Amino acid sequence: MKVILTSDIMSKDKRQLNSLNGFVDKIHEYVDDINCLYIPSNPYRQFLTNTISSHHKRAFEKSGFTVKSWDVFSLFQKNILNKLISNANLIILAGGHVPTQNKFFHDIRLKQYIKDYKGLVIGISAGSMNSATKVYAQPEKLGEAKSPHYDRFLEGLAITDITVLPHYKDIKDERLDNQRIMEDVTLPDSYGRKFYAIEDGAYIVPNENKIYGNCYVIKDGKVKKICNTGQSVNLRGDY
Asked: How much is the pTM?
């Protein structure tokens, strides 16, 4: 299995794929003619999923890919998920609310079915986060940061051991429940752990051991920038 972990696959004008840091070329290295299985974050928001998915499909086409099939997974297909996976050469794990998607993935037993998949997986935001063995579900909704019942550490798909925090530029100064999301929540949670925070346009390819674009390592309460736009670095460096 090949895996690409991203924050957002779209260009700023939302009309095509983001070509920053060679992202489009990287996908072309793995697939050109696409049979896609698009797996959402929330199966009960089908209209929203279909709308976003159609934009993503169009972006692939405008970026030089031939889309032979594009199947948006729904709960009605739960019993044929294994067949859908075997027919795909690209699986997209959509963005959304991390715990909601995580529960959905467990409900459809995606971890079991995807483990022997041989094609390309692209994670988008929450999809990248839930790809990990151990997911860090950074609080994002009101009440989550202060709730003693909100579980920040979840069991993921285990298709990578990389813990990703997407949209770093956008979230690093956010506040939630009267707390600074980074300084008061995530940095304390990083002791004994390592999070890879990526900005939109950056991506990580675990099977190549590479990071492309703006990326920061958050570890033991500290933040260190390890890669810049237009650059690539080894994923498992001494950070």
From this structure: 0.96
